[in-house]
From TrEMBL:
InterPro entries: DUF1565, Pectin_lyas_fold, Pectin_lyase_fold/virulence. The lineage of its organism: unclassified sequences, metagenomes, ecological metagenomes. It holds the Pfam family DUF1565. This is DUF1565 domain-containing protein. Residues 301-364 form the DUF1565 domain. Signal peptide: none annotated. It comes from marine metagenome. Gene3D superfamilies: Single-stranded right-handed beta-helix, Pectin lyase-like.
Amino acid sequence: HTHCRVIFCRFGLVMKKVFIIFSLISFSLGSTINIPNDFPTIQLGIDAANNGDTVIVAQGIYYENITIDKEIFFTSYAIFDNLENGWINNENIQSTIIHAVSDTLNPSFGSCLVVRDGNIAPTILGFTFMGGIGTVMIENDNCAIPINRPERSGGAILIFKAYPTINFNRFINNGISNENERGRKVSKAGGAIAHYDDAEVEFDEDRNRLININHSIRDIPEQLNIQNNYFENNTSSDGKNFYSRGYEGSIDVSHSIFDDIDCESNSVNNFVLKSRDDYAEFIQNEITGNCIDGNALYVSVDGDNNNSGSEDYPVKTIGHAFSLVKDDTTITTTIYIGEGIFSPSTTGEQFPISVPDNVHLIGVNRETSILDAEADFINQSRVMVIERCENVKIANLTITGGNAEDAACYGGGGIYICPPIPRFTGWEMTPSIPVLENLIVTGNHAYAGGG
């Protein structure tokens, strides 16, 4: 691994052949809507489609925030191409771009695409998704008092109680708004894709209103097909490329291309692909990417996330350093944090910092290595979350600027240490026992203690 990027590609040939056959069959089962020939925008075409129809999109950049709430085949003209060899260089995939926009009428909606409700299973093929910052979801905390806690999720694609097939797409630069924007918006869960199958979460826009949903009798599938996708420079506080909550099947990302992988295990770690509480299992057959080297990483305010993370070539954010941690429980990775203020405004750091297993975060000096979430009552965020951890150490840092006022009795504005939420009766809870050493924890807030 050098400070220059090299991408290595492999291809799942059998899956592609099966998928292309399935795609051609789907054309014969419903009508075809062409964008922009039949409708000027993608959303208008989807709105006009019925279950079983195909919406096919010509090359171009489409500045839209799209919602799919029906079973359709949503594709670019890549469906007509031979995708058996070099699909990542396919012109239709590269040139059919869905770029999210800031919606002034609905600022909570910032994903390129939302797929939602009714256990629907649409197919999404052959696009480049860019510029998504996630859509606001509400987590209901029924503790001392009912609390609705908003957080952005699903930078490029947010999936809610739906089970799409997503193949042959590129996900690039999703998860955070423009660096010149004041009060940058970030996807706190799932920089590229987030999937929710959890009754405790709902859309911000759905609060306090009745939703007419065409519920499906379809059984929830045991596996999600997310094969043959390309992920580059997506960012999130947790689940850099995929975040799953509540789904208890397997998520197959085989033959996909990631920024960085552990070439020895041919896998990425649980910060890059995150299943909350480990309910879902990720299948990672023949994935590719830059090979991760070593077990010491360096972060500097003057670093660059295109660097390797070595002492001579440090990265800029702690979140990016997490994605360079090997997926090996026998190895402890030490991340050395330099002097300076690491915050959204100074380094583009995303908060909360969700610390993965077998990671030690070590500052230079607790007076000079500062993690500042810059949160307030309007833009709330903890500084650090340590959930169901093993072999985690935090030392020589200042932890400040956290705000968890809407966390009800859970608290933890600065550091939140928690076990997973048990779902089954008699389920054994794994404790979180990190080592916290030589820290200054100051200027953080929470509703009911534990600031």
